[in-house]
Amino acid sequence: MLTVPLVIIGAGGFGREALDVVAAMNETHRNRFEIVGVVDSAPSLVNISRLEDRGISYLGTETEWLSNGNDASFVVGVGDPIMRSTIAARWIDAGRSPVTLVHPSAIVGGMSTIGAGSVVCAGVQISTNVRLGEYVHLNPNVTVGHDSALERCVSINPGAIVSGEVQIGTGSLVGAGAVILAGLNIGRDSVVGAAACVVRDVEASTVVKGVPAR
Ligand SMILES: CC(C)(COP(=O)(O)OP(=O)(O)OC[C@H]1O[C@@H](n2cnc3c(N)ncnc32)[C@H](O)[C@@H]1OP(=O)(O)O)[C@@H](O)C(=O)NCCC(=O)NCCS
């Protein structure tokens, strides 16, 4: 199998979570990826040192990296959906290609599809006939029920449960441990608070929290 040179964008928590997914995939897929390093336009010193501790190179800012001609593929390891969308567009404009990461411990049901640039972490369960758009992030132990569709740049935080036949619009974020009941629509650019239980549709650009979520 061809080894793909890969740059992770983002030295923060999710960027390094993506490194874990790559490491696990490399164990089961015979070194599928060569991690070139991590790019971040404003990394904290503590995160640079966390990269150093695991032997990963910090490659500089996006501008520095994108001007150097290296055409390694990319994954955006940034949890914020709006920032992720902007970064992905910039790297596509610069002629770079996204890769899709799926942790080997994730379960992906029949007829389910995962868009380019998405990251599916350890312990995720994707049921049958689910559609994930581009650059979707599913954090550890997320469940996505049958026949659901998550559009571009949706983020589902750890342990959240998306029931069956749920639609989640572009750029929305579902907080850790939240539950979305079956058949509901979450409009684009919305936020569901951590531990919320969503029992009715959520309009676009709306923040809901609590049980039941309001
Ligand atoms: C709901 C949320 C989006 C609100 O963010 P915010 O607008 O910055 O809210 P604030 O922190 O200013 O809190 C505003 C009020 O909402 C309450 N609140 C915050 N988050 C809440 C939640 N998840 N459920 C219930 N109430 C919440 C606060 O206690 C505060 O109440 P008060 O006005 O009575 O003091 C955010 O708290 C959240 O839950 N985001 C998801 C984060 C997540 O999943 N993190 C895990 C990452 S791995």
Automatic annotation (TrEMBL):
Residues 6-89 form the PglD N-terminal domain. Substrate binds at G79. The active site is at H146 (proton acceptor). Pfam families: PglD_N. Keywords: Repeat, Transferase. The record marks D147 as: Increases basicity of active site His. This is Acetyltransferase. It comes from Mycetocola manganoxydans.
